Amino acid sequence: MKLRTIGYEAATQGAVIDCLKGACVEVVIDVRAVASSRRAGFSKTILAASLAEAGIDYVHLRALGTPKAGRQAVRAGHVAEMEAIFEAHLQEPEAQLQLAEALDIARERSAALLCYEADALHCHRRIVAGRLAQAETFEVEDLRP
Question: Which candidate, 4, 72, 107, 124, has a CA 20 to 30 Å from the CA of 134?
Answer without folding.
Answer: 72
